[in-house]
Design a protein that fits this description.
By secondary structure, the chain is mainly alpha-helical. 66% of the residues lie in helices and 0% in strands. Keywords: Membrane, Transmembrane, Transmembrane helix.
């Protein structure tokens, strides 16, 4: 709770009060409690299965409620599932209340629009085509309410600039919600047909398979992340001078990959490549990694084995794909003077050429215990100077363009950086290949 600013908590409280006002009419008049209970149970089960890993997977049930029930009754369907959902970040209670409140408002608004355009009559007559227009109007309203509320809470709770907070929220969610709305509308029409609610539940069968697949996929992704996290932590413990280096190289590799127009799956693989590029240091004696001052030729040869050690460690991890080649070849140079195999130009895998630039850039812009960081412009100038001989010019240009758009924040990589000392010669093999 302490991490949430007071203004954000006040905002959540205000949204929650607004949601309660939407539910207030349920205290008067007849309420179809059995229908609310059935839809709420379906939504709750879906939320428990998918959690926050597949947001929106259960929206068809909420939209079916918006097409079947009065606005207050439809809004109530969302409450149990949101309050009982799995929350991985703290404060869990506040996050559950927020989720319930925003869903209540979104469903209530969508149901109001659907009702105003005569949607319930078309659904009651089991006339699917005539119900499409009211549904098509209700979906953007549902999407807009969620986008507005989510963007606002980002601004207040996480201090995200307003322009960035709302950018793309509506557009990204509209297409998936349109598909969910079709499933919800099919449920509503079948519910009101002579076949009754039992037929409507058949629509949920493929959805349940989808929920299960989402859950399996995200469990597998979590296992992958845990594997990578364990390897990175082991490297950080062993080589304290470069703590956090892998994460930043992964970030820079991802920026380069995106600038080159690679698809999301490949971008993620290159992020893994950057994170794990130095995992072979686990096979190098700690005394060499922590040695201050120049290395002897023999010590340098030992350190230069770390790409091969790393490849041996990760070659059996199938989900890493081309990241394994990047681990092995990220110290190769375009002119053939790199290691371990002295590959030239296009012989070097593209993933390794990406990581080589990201590695060198972070090494130059990070403060180490034995020297200060270079300014970003100076590091980029050095990369451009070495483009063609040491680095792939395409990768260097992609990084320059990405940094021009998004910027970069150099970081201290050791836990404690001692007082500045006179500059010493760089330690070969300890930093990026730009040395």
């Amino acid at each position: 709770m302490e991490a949430v600013p007071a203004r954000a908590r006040a905002y959540v409280a205000g949204v929650a009060l607004g949601a309660l006002s939407c539910l207030a009419p349920l205290s008067t008049g007849r309420v179809p409690w059995w229908a609310i209970a059935l839809l709420a149970a379906l939504h709750t089960c879906g939320e428990r299965i998918t959690g926050r890993r597949a947001p929106g997977a259960c929206h068809p049930v909420l939209l079916a409620g918006a097409f079947l029930l009065s606005p207050p009754a439809a809004a109530l369907v969302a409450v149990p599932g949101a309050l009982l959902s799995r929350v991985e970040q703290r404060p869990a209670a506040l996050r559950r209340v927020w989720r319930a409140a925003e869903l209540v408002l979104a469903v209530w608004a969508a149901a109001r629009v659907f009702r105003a355009l005569g949607g319930p009559q078309a659904v009651g007559a089991a006339d699917f085509p005539y119900a499409l227009l009211p549904a098509a109007a209700a979906v953007p309203v549902f999407c807009a309410v969620l986008a507005l509320l989510d963007g606002s809470v980002l601004v207040l709770a996480e201090h995200v600039p307003p322009r960035r907070a709302w950018r793309g929220l509506f557009a990204r969610s509209l297409a998936p919600l349109a598909v969910h709305a079709l499933a919800g509308l099919m449920m509503a029409v079948l519910w009101r047909s002579p076949y009754g609610p039992a037929a409507a539940l058949l629509v949920l069968l493929p959805m349940c398979v989808s929920w299960w697949a989402f859950a399996q996929y995200h469990r597998e992704q979590a296992a992958h992340q845990a594997t990578i996290r364990a390897l990175v932590q082991a490297v950080d413990i062993k080589d304290g001078y470069t703590r956090g280096h892998g994460e930043r190289v992964g970030q820079a590799s991802m920026m380069i990959a995106r600038e080159l127009g690679m698809d999301d799956e490949r971008v993620e693989v290159l992020r893994f490549a950057g994170i794990l590029h130095d995992v072979g240091k686990l096979g190098v004696p700690t005394r060499l990694l922590r040695k201050e001052g120049p290395l002897t030729p023999e010590e340098r040869r030992i350190i230069e084995l770390h790409p091969e050690y790393g490849h041996e460690m990760v070659r059996g991890i199938s989900f890493l794909g081309e990241a394994r080649a990047a681990v092995l070849h990220h110290h190769e140079r375009m002119d053939g003077s790199g290691y371990p195999y002295g590959l030239v130009g296009g012989q070097i895998p593209e993933s390794a050429r990406v990581v080589a630039v990201a590695d060198a850039f972070d090494a130059m812009t990070s403060t180490r215990s034995y020297r200060r960081a270079r300014p970003v412009p100076a590091a980029l100038a050095e990369l451009e100077r070495c483009a063609g001989s040491q680095f792939d010019p395409r990768m260097v240009e992609a990084l320059v363009q990405a940094l021009g758009k998004y910027g970069w924040r150099p970081a201290v990589t050791a836990d404690e950086v001692p007082a500045p000392r006179p500059p010493t010669a760089p330690v070969p093999g300890r930093e990026g290949a730009h040395r």
